[in-house]
């Protein structure tokens, strides 16, 4: 256990040194590349205004997303009604998609539990 702690400390020290050497240059390059998104002057009032704009823009997009959801649902209903005409390839793709979703949820659960299969730390 102590050797793993020492390894972790050395890796953390290496990461810290890397960030110390390259972090400032990365920060400056990032700001330079995204200069068009920076609002001048950067005041608290401007940040609050932008925050409100984002919130109300998202709020205004709800009806469009709502309509798109119902259009997608109608498409699924249409496919379900005409399932007798469904090709094997389409059914296979749908099955693989469902299997992939299930696998991602299982992997997510395992990762969330700290890579344990039982959920208990031994």
From TrEMBL:
It is found in: Mitochondrion membrane. GO terms for biological process: proton motive force-driven ATP synthesis. GO terms for cellular component: mitochondrial membrane; proton-transporting ATP synthase complex. Keywords: ATP synthesis, CF(0), Hydrogen ion transport, Ion transport, Membrane, Mitochondrion, Transport. The keyword Hydrolase does not apply. Signal peptide: none annotated. One of its GO terms (molecular function) is proton transmembrane transporter activity. Belongs to the ATPase g subunit family. This is Uncharacterized protein LOC109722208. It comes from Ananas comosus (Pineapple). The lineage of its organism: Eukaryota, Viridiplantae, Streptophyta, Embryophyta, Tracheophyta.
């Amino acid at each position: 256990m102590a050797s793993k702690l020492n390894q972790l400390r050395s890796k953390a020290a290496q990461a810290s040194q890397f960030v110390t050497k390259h972090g400032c240059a990365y920060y400056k390059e990032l700001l330079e590349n995204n200069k068009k998104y920076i609002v001048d002057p950067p005041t608290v009032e401007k940040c609050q205004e932008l925050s409100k704009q984002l919130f109300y823009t998202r709020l205004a997009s709800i009806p469009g997303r709502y309509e798109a959801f119902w259009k997608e649902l109608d498409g699924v209903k249409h496919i379900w009604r005409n399932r007798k005409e469904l090709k094997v390839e389409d059914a296979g793709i749908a099955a693989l998609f469902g299997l992939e979703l299930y696998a991602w949820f299982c992997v997510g659960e395992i990762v969330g539990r700290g890579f344990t299969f039982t959920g208990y730390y031994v």
